[in-house]
Design brief:
By secondary structure, this protein is an alpha/beta fold. Among the domains are: 225 residues; 96 residues, Nucleotidyltransferase, domain 5 (2-Layer Sandwich); 137 residues, no CATH class. The chain is 50% helix and 9% strand. It contains 35 helices and 16 strands. An eleven-stranded mixed β-sheet has the order 6-5-4-7-8-16-15-14-11-9-10, with helices on both faces. Strands 1-2-3 form a three-stranded antiparallel β-sheet. The protein has a two-stranded antiparallel sheet with strand order 12-13. A hairpin with a 6-residue loop joins strand 1 and strand 2. The protein is flat, with a radius of gyration of 31 Å. The N and C termini lie far apart (85 Å).
Length: 869
């Protein structure tokens, strides 16, 4: 039966048009849309209110409060707009207009979107303008103004003139309010350093509730509000947050369309690449190929090119070749980007990429044959020359003379044509060729000359570590003494930021494969030993350990720690972006990410020389290198020239008698000092146990990093989570969960946080650690490391951490990696000291302050400071 009111509404509103949107899915959710075996359902307050089983037919909401009813109307309105269901939207608007009041904004919003979908932009704007003029309530009026800005305002960097919102769960449109608040904060940074770090901290705090609040599992109309919100977050460096909102958009596509759009999948793959999740990025692109509706090979070529590089990044060179073999080179598009260089790639450039994977997967001979098949056009351009340089790179080991001749010809041609990148890469390669040819002076001339070739426009192509490594290789091969200490130091500094991309430099910079990084370390360490350069040796081996630690890290950084990582990913892998992200490369989002990355890098700068010179206590640093252990001793009471001494012991056993006796000898020389400090790594931990066992009345401390000490040394109060401490010990201040995890800020800054509560699972990965208990009222409370990591910043981090084995489930002696990850998290967050003991009895403690007494840890446990004192 065709009801009169349906006919009336259809007459008013007419036909509906396509409207893209978003949703959350996968299992039963508290709020929003969910995907299930039957298709999908709309969940409000954890209850299913409408589903695909009844065809999502409209029905007036039952047993919902006002806020939930509004969410219901918005969710269903979003769905009907996407499905072009004019009757469904008409029914919603009819219901809304019978209720009015708090429902009026939903009415105005959906009506405006209806008009916009019809192409009636003037009328759509008028609907919201009229509502804004008439609405007396500031909260609803500001919601409408922000929606107006999102729907109808353009501007530089795609930024909007958003109003700052204060959002309460008790008010309707809470999810919309939260996303407007996030938009306001992400558009504040302007690329300048002033207040940048504070602005990033605020963005992180405003973004955090989306990961935790069930009411924010679905943001109504997100892709209409701001479909580029995920991209903005990604370009700011907040890639985890970008994932979250991109998945929201894709979830709703699954519900409304039955599948996800190709554009969304490729964008997600770009974000996954930026996040370092190469296998997931590969899966996404394979999904793209399965669902693509286009038969254009220019599209599939773009995807196969990306897949080939993704497989290469995962060191699956055979699979990389397999992907490349699916390219249709007879139907190439000038719009395809080089995934590594982020610029249009020609067929010749694609063949050059393929040759590298063939080289790695099969043999140099196969790669050479592939390159020799590339025919030269009548008129050569720069793109046509790169494969010739690749040929010179590959044949260098077999025939350095021919390789050198090719490189010389390329240098001459490139210099005459102004092809700076080509000239730079060929000059660097020629420097290595000359080492092979025993022309060591010519080699150093080439490396010196290469530094001045690149202009500002091409500076991104520079690889200082390859150049500086070359000087070291040339010196080692010549057998002559030479001033290469600076090249060692600068080479390590640049390599430290590039180590995870080592394979990529075969592609982008034509790095010679036979001159390995491992050789560089050997030559550098030997040179510094021969020169008796103790400080240079210490700095090199210390950085060697830091690089190994970085390469062995499991899991990708999160929270603000991800900014520097994402900045590096953009530097080397920005060519994975889709056309939709092109507009952001010149935006202030990029400038802000670069500025914040620089700020964070400054905070992490380490210098053994500066750290030890600022120290007042004897220091012991033990650094293993291959089959040797190097011992460094620093005595601040000696003259600057004699303060640092070192010794190499040919052993790989940290507890060998030679190591422990050498350390004891240093202790005897400096035993009058009240404090001895040892660098915290595995050998340092082993030696500290020996010293504590043999000299029980002395204080031995550990330190984590080589930065000058900035600890104020003020006395600390001891604070802990109230839930596990219904009857706290004397002097222990307990606070509720929100304060202890950092959701709310404690006024008292000089604090030590006590962690002495059981982890929920003994086998959880470090990132998934969580702690729970029942409070005095019998309610269940939980803290998780993921929540904690989002909230730790300079306003919430304590000065010290006190913890026991309960927190990580295993002792430091039994599980060094998990404790190292725990310490790294806290020290990177800004903690100055960590106190650890396997366990203790509170009945034996006179008061909580005793937990900060080093004597309490003399027999068992350790005290670790962030820096040497």
């Amino acid at each position: 039966m065709f009801h009169y009111y349906s006919f009336f509404l259809l007459c008013i509103f007419g036909a509906l048009a396509f409207f893209p949107s978003r949703l959350q899915s996968q299992g039963k959710r508290n709020q929003g849309w969910s995907v299930n075996s039957d298709g999908g359902a709309l969940m409000i307050g954890g209850n299913e209110v409408i589903s695909s089983r009844d065809g999502f037919r409209f029905k007036s909401p039952q047993n919902l409060n006002t806020n939930q009813e509004i969410d219901y109307y918005l969710a269903l309105g979003e769905f009907y707009l996407k499905r072009k269901d004019k009757v469904g939207v008409a029914n919603i608007l009819y219901d809304l207009r019978t209720k009015k009041g708090e429902y009026s904004f939903a009415d105005a919003l959906l009506t405006s979107l209806w008009k916009q979908a019809q192409g009636e932009d003037i009328q759509a704007i008028k609907v919201l303008d009229t509502y804004i003029q008439k609405e007396p309530n500031t909260y609803f009026r500001n919601l409408a103004k922000n929606m107006h800005a999102n729907l109808f305002q353009g501007g530089e960097d795609e930024k909007k003139s958003m109003l700052k919102m204060d959002c309460l769960k008790s008010k309707p449109y809470y999810a919309l309010c939260r996303v407007f608040r996030l938009q306001y904060y992400i558009d504040l940074p302007n690329g300048k350093e002033k207040d940048m770090h504070k602005q990033y901290v605020n963005i992180m705090r405003v973004a955090s509730p989306f990961f935790e609040d069930p009411l924010l599992e679905w943001i109504p109309l997100l892709d209409r509000i701001d479909e580029d919100l995920p991209a903005k977050l990604a370009f700011l460096g907040l890639i985890r947050e970008a994932f979250y909102f991109q998945n929201m958009i894709m979830d709703f596509e699954r519900i409304a369309d039955g599948n996800v759009s190709e554009n969304s999948i490729e964008r997600l793959s770009f974000f996954q690449t930026l996040g370092g999740d190469y296998s997931l990025a590969e899966e996404s692109l394979l999904q793209y190929l399965q669902i693509t509706k286009s038969k254009k090979t220019s599209y599939t070529n773009r995807i196969y090119l990306k897949l080939g590089v993704l497989a290469f990044l995962q060191k699956d060179y055979k699979k990389s070749v397999e992907y490349y073999l699916k390219l249709d080179l007879s139907n190439w598009s000038s719009n395809i980007l080089h995934p590594v260089l982020n610029e249009p790639i020609t067929i010749t450039g694609a063949k050059d990429l393929i040759a590298v994977s063939v080289w790695k997967a099969q043999s140099a001979d196969n790669a050479i044959r592939a390159l020799q098949k590339i025919q030269d056009p009548d008129k050569l351009n720069e793109d046509d020359i790169w494969p010739k340089l690749r040929l010179a790179q590959i044949i260098m080991d077999q025939n350095p003379e021919i390789s050198s001749q090719i490189a010389d010809e390329i240098i001459y041609m490139a210099a005459g044509k102004g092809w700076r990148r080509l000239e730079y890469a060929a000059t660097m390669l020629q420097g290595y060729n000359q080492i092979y040819r025993k022309e060591f002076r010519k080699s150093t001339i080439e490396f010196t000359k290469s530094r001045g070739i690149l202009d500002t426009e091409n500076s991104f192509f520079s690889t200082e570590f390859i150049r500086n490594f070359g000087f070291v290789f040339a010196h080692a091969a010549s057998g002559k003494r030479g001033p290469i200490t600076t090249h060692i130091r600068e080479g390590i500094s640049d390599y430290k930021n590039s180590a995870v991309y080592e394979d990529l430099f075969l592609i982008r910079n034509y790095r010679p494969v036979s001159f390995s990084t491992d050789q560089f370390w050997d030559y550098s360490i030997q040179f510094l030993k021969d020169e008796s350069d103790g400080l240079g040796l210490l700095e090199s081996l210390y950085n060697y350990e830091l690089i190994k630690r970085k390469l062995n890290e499991k899991g990708k950084p999160q929270s603000l720690f991800q900014i520097q990582f994402v900045e590096s990913q953009f530097k080397y892998l920005s060519g994975f972006h889709t056309q939709r992200e092109s507009k952001f490369f010149d935006s202030t989002y990029v400038e802000s990410r670069q500025t914040e990355s620089t700020i964070l890098a400054r905070q992490d700068e380490e210098s053994p020389a500066k750290a030890l010179e600022a120290s007042k206590n004897p220091s012991i640093i033990i650094l293993p290198y291959k089959d040797s252990i190097f011992l460094f001793f620093y005595n601040p009471k000696e003259s600057k020239k004699n303060a640092l001494t070192w010794k190499e012991i040919r052993t790989s056993r940290f507890d060998s008698i030679e190591v422990t006796e050498s350390v004891k000898d240093f202790y005897y020389l400096t035993r009058e000092s009240e404090r001895h400090q040892i660098y915290f790594n595995e050998p340092g931990l082993v030696v500290s146990r020996v010293l504590k066992r043999d000299f029980k009345d002395k204080n031995f401390f550990l330190f984590y990093s080589m930065m000058p000490n900035t600890d104020s040394g003020k006395s600390l109060s001891v604070v802990s989570w109230s839930c596990p401490f219904p009857n706290p010990v004397n002097g222990l201040k307990t606070v509720e969960t929100s304060y202890f995890e950092g959701s709310r800020i404690l006024k008292e800054k000089e604090r030590a946080h006590l962690w002495d509560f059981e982890a929920q699972s003994r086998n959880s990965p470090f990132r998934d650690l969580a702690w729970a208990c029942k409070n005095g009222a019998g309610n269940f409370e939980e803290m998780s490391l993921t929540r904690l990591s989002r909230r730790i910043d300079y306003r919430t981090v304590p000065r010290a951490i006190i913890y026991s084995d309960k927190v990580l489930t295993k002792s430091l002696q039994d599980s060094y990696p998990s404790h190292l990850a725990w310490l790294q998290f806290w020290f990177r967050s800004g903690v100055k000291s960590v106190f650890y003991k396997p366990k203790w009895s509170y009945s034996d403690l006179p008061n909580a302050a005793f937990l900060l007494d080093p004597a309490f840890y003399r027999e068992e446990g350790v005290v670790i400071s962030q820096t040497p004192h």
